[in-house]
Structure prediction request, 488 residues.
Amino acid sequence: MKRRYLYFISLMLLINSTIYAQCITTYPFVEDFESGPSGWISGVANSDWTCRTPAKVPITVTVSGNSFWISCGLTNATYNGGEKAWIQSPCFDFTSVPRPYVQFLIFWDTERQYDGGNLQYSTNSGSSWQNVGFNSNNQNCKTANWFNSPSITNLNGLASPTTGWSGSTLPTNGSCLGGNGSGQWVTASYCLSNLAGESDVLFRFTFSSGTSCNNYDGIAIDSFSISNLPEPTLDFTFTCETNNRVRFEANGGDCPTTQTWNFGDPASGTNTSSNFTDVHTFSSPGTYNITFTLDEPCVGIISLNRTIIIPDISAEIFPLTCTDSDDGSIQLTVSPYPNLQLNWNTTPPQSGPAISNLPVGIYQVILKADSTCTLTKEYEVIVNGDGGPNPSLPTDVIFCSGDVIPLQPGEFDSYLWSTGSTTNTLMVTDTGWYAVTVTDSTGCTGKDSVFIRERCFTGMFVPSSFTPNDDGINDFLDRIQERFLNIR
Prediction:
């Protein structure tokens, strides 16, 4: 019997090596078994694994075709008792596969808890085997329909630990436990991250049963595939809400377990975040390296780095030399940001770090550049000092025929009167408006004017309100006359 068993194994290995003379290296790899076992072999004690088109209920043909591997034979109503069997794949070379991933169709219909099977792998040509993954408590979004039973009694001696698929849609019947069957073909999938880079990997599906309660269809496998998961696309955008307050929004990844922002701003006190969308207020102007990191099952840690600039401007403002001039200017000092644009609200519009020919006013500049928040600032241009000379003529002058009135606006460098005179003092001999324009040593000018009107006093007038009673009001005649003369 032993010789017959060894001969069978040797024959199966020979068939396998003939079909796949070398390990599979092209991915994705898909085997739907429509052409038969396709290099897969079965073996060990009391195996009834078969690869063809069975005529059974409840396990029927799959959506991928008619042929698949099934324990319990093609027509049997029960699977073999005392079975500890497996089907083994050809070898796979994952040397150039950084993220190997397995998917297949599976249907299980066994006595719950006692009978069932699992998927194992070997990296030493079958000398030892380990389970692929754990039970369902360890699943994530890259894992689907994986081991549903934490312990299958009859897997002892074939798999350790004994986690796997077990159960039936039939109810419990006496001592035969029911429940937890798949009830249909389902897609099972699992990350093979620990096998990345391995050059010789074998897989095998196991199946074990007891000697009673075997009236089930067993386990069936179809559409076995191995692929290299693509690295998720990772991206993030930022929106400047104010100059130093920025909203970040990331997208990408299929099912990250963690995500982390590092804003490159340790001085802020809130330099990290674990939200996909978050707002950060930068502590000061500067250039910051933003990093968004995902920890993705089957992929590991992936990061994306971008630079954002919080700009700053310093300005020197040159005031007007004279009140009525337009020689004010503003000179900005700006870091050399990429593709820098500086636009002012002047009329006509000006751009660049320096603007000139400015009258008194408030001027706004908008800074834009690549990877830079837009910065808006305002600067006020005023007049230097007092803005030039300030001539002072009397506010009101009374003139009588024959009078000569001197008008003196102050001491300046030059004078131009409305009469055409350029003297520092104008001698007025007639009524009317008189204006002067003066110029100081800086070339600034100032203006003033006065209206001279005629009113003459020709007689004595003694008001009847003279009351010399020492009450402080109209006590003296000369003071009444003085007041009158001042208002004539």
Summary: The chain has five domains: 2-228, 234-310, 313-381, 397-454, 457-488.
